[in-house]
């Protein structure tokens, strides 16, 4: 049976921050501070840094690299886009898909995100699928309805074999970049709900093997408590992943 430690992932989402020079210093700083992380550590870096950070992490056990987006089509006249095959050829391990900032600023919906997830899996890239509700939905206590629908639209058409590879990140929009964190209990409730949904459709073995990460104002001070919850397998960290010491402390939280 898969244990919580097997599912452990701490991923940084640098978003549109760091120049290539700064990014290399940041990634190396983290690697130097945490030589053998428990579980996996992922750097989600700007496209221009993917190859360089992959080279830098190649010799560092436990470290992986994620793209922050990807196009759903195999190739063609899509100026400015990047395909799954390009990521696979560069040996990029993961791709963050469906982040709320892409939903908000680039109009991505779960039908499109599903197509991207399938394209990533076909190329051997692991999707980190982001879901999460906005503040008004949380205030009206409809978070399970909204997140349930996101999960269903983005993931329910996958085969069990495909689903077993997906990483899910629950990122309540009201907690992203706001300094407001979901309480450990709120995170646990939603993560348990997501795992139950996956179990209902794909079976308990697949559901128990999947990593479900929490994202939204994770920092060293709250990581241990959040990651200590039964269904919180780690984090997708924005702002705090831009500081080597802060991110290193989060990687080590609760270990
Ligand atoms: O969006 C996030 C990670 O993808 C979370 O960002 P913050 O950690 O800055 O709130």
Automatic annotation (TrEMBL):
Query: EC number(s) for this protein?
Result: 5.3.1.1
Q: Which SUPFAM superfamilies match?
A: Triosephosphate isomerase (TIM)
Annotated GO molecular function terms are:
triose-phosphate isomerase activity
Keywords tagged on the record? Cytoplasm, Gluconeogenesis, Glycolysis, Isomerase
Q: Which domain of life is it from?
A: Bacteria
Q: Where is the active site?
A: 99, 171
Tell me which Gene3D superfamilies the record gives: Aldolase class I (3.20.20.70)
Q: In which pathway does it act?
A: Carbohydrate degradation; glycolysis; D-glyceraldehyde 3-phosphate from glycerone phosphate: step 1/1; Carbohydrate biosynthesis; gluconeogenesis
Its annotated compartments are: Cytoplasm
Q: Where does substrate bind?
A: 13-15, 177, 217, 238-239
**Any Pfam family hit:** TIM
Matching InterPro entries, A to Z? Answer: Aldolase_TIM, TIM_sf, TrioseP_Isoase_bac/euk, Triosephosphate_isomerase, Triosephosphate_isomerase_AS
Task: Summarize the subunit comment.
Answer: Homodimer.
* Family of this protein: Belongs to the triosephosphate isomerase family.
Q: Which NCBIfam families match?
A: tim
Its protein name is: Triosephosphate isomerase
Its source organism is Neolewinella antarctica
